Amino acid sequence: MLIFLYGQDTYRMREKLKELVEEYKKVHKNVLTLKSFEEENLNFDEIKNEAKISSIFQEKKLIIFKNVLSLLKNEPRFMGLSNDLQKSDDIVIFLEEKDFNGKNELVKFLMKNAKSQEFQLLNNDKLKNWVKKEFENYEVKIDSTALEKLINFVGNDLWQMSNEIRKLVNYKRGEKIKKEDVALLVKPKIESDIFATINSIAARNKKEALSLIHKHLEKGDNPLYLLSMINFQFRNLLIIKDLIQKYRSPYTLSKVTNLHPYIIKKSYSLAQKFTIQELKKIYQKIFQVDLAIKTGRVSPEAALDLFLAGI
C-alpha cells in the first residue's frame, strides 16, 4: 500500500504520520519491521533491500520516506523500484513538506497510484474549529474573545499554536481562558516581523521595509492593524529613547516604566539607531497617515507605502 502525505501544513501532516505509525504498532509488535528514510540517511541500495526482502517475522513492513522526493527524482533506478513498492504488501508512506511539485515524475506517480492526502494551511472557520478542538482535548474552555485574540496573534502556524495552547492550559490549570491570559502569555507573531521592518527603516533600507510590509498585505493582514503595530513600536522607541538619555541603564528603565522587560530588551538597542528628533518626526508622520486614512483621503495600503517612502 502506498500513502502520500503532502502540503504546507507540516504540523497536521506530522500528526497524521504519527497516527499511522501508532496504528501500525498496535498490530505489528516487532520494531524491526519499521524503517524510515530521510535526506541524511538516504541510500538507494538499502532502499532496494527493504523493498525486495520480505520480513522474516511474516509481518507487513512499514517503510517511511520523509522529504526525499527532490533527491529520488534524480535517481532513475527508483522509478522502477516504485512499481515494486506499489505491488508490495508492505505499507509505504511518502511524507513530503518540500517538493510536491506536479512536474516531479515521482509526484505524478504517487498522485496517480497512492492514497494521497493534502494538508493545506487552515484559515477562518477551519482554523478556529481546530483550535477549539485542541482546547477540548485538554478539557479546557476558552471564551470567544480570547480565541479571536489567540488566532490574531499566532495565525495558522500550528506548531506555534500548539505550543501556545499548552502554555495557556498549564497556566490556567483547568480554568476558563480569557483574552487577558492570551495578552499576558502569547507574543504576537506579527510583532517580530514589525521589529524586522523597523530595523530596515533604521538601516535606511526603505526597499526592504516596503517588501516586508507587502508580504503581510499579500497574506491578507489588515493594513490598519499593521499601522497600529508600527505606531505601538515607535511609541515605545520614543519613550525608551527619552529615558535612555536620563537613566542610561536598561535595568533602570524596567523599574521606571510599565513596559514589559521583553519590550525594553528588544527596543533598547534599536532606539540607539535613531536620534530623538528622528523618532519624533516619524511618530508625527504616523499620526498624519492615520488621520489621512480616517478622513478617507487615502487608502490604508497606499498610506503605508507613503509613510515608508517618506521617512
UniProtKB/TrEMBL annotation:
EC number of the protein: 2.7.7.7
Location of the DNA polymerase III delta N-terminal domain: 4-116
InterPro entries per UniProt: DNA_pol3_clamp-load_cplx_C, DNA_pol3_delta-like_C, DNA_pol3_delta_N, DNA_polIII_delta, P-loop_NTPase
Signal peptide (from-to): none
GO-annotated cellular components: DNA polymerase III complex
Pfam families named among the record's database cross-references: DNA_pol3_delta (PF06144), DNA_pol3_delta_C (PF21694)
Stretches assigned to coiled coil: none
GO molecular function, one term: DNA binding
UniProt record, GO biological process: DNA-templated DNA replication
Transferase keyword on record: yes
Top class in the EC scheme: transferase
Family: Belongs to the DNA polymerase HolA subunit family.
NCBIfam families: holA
Protein name: DNA polymerase III subunit delta
Lineage, top ranks: Bacteria, Candidatus Nealsoniibacteriota
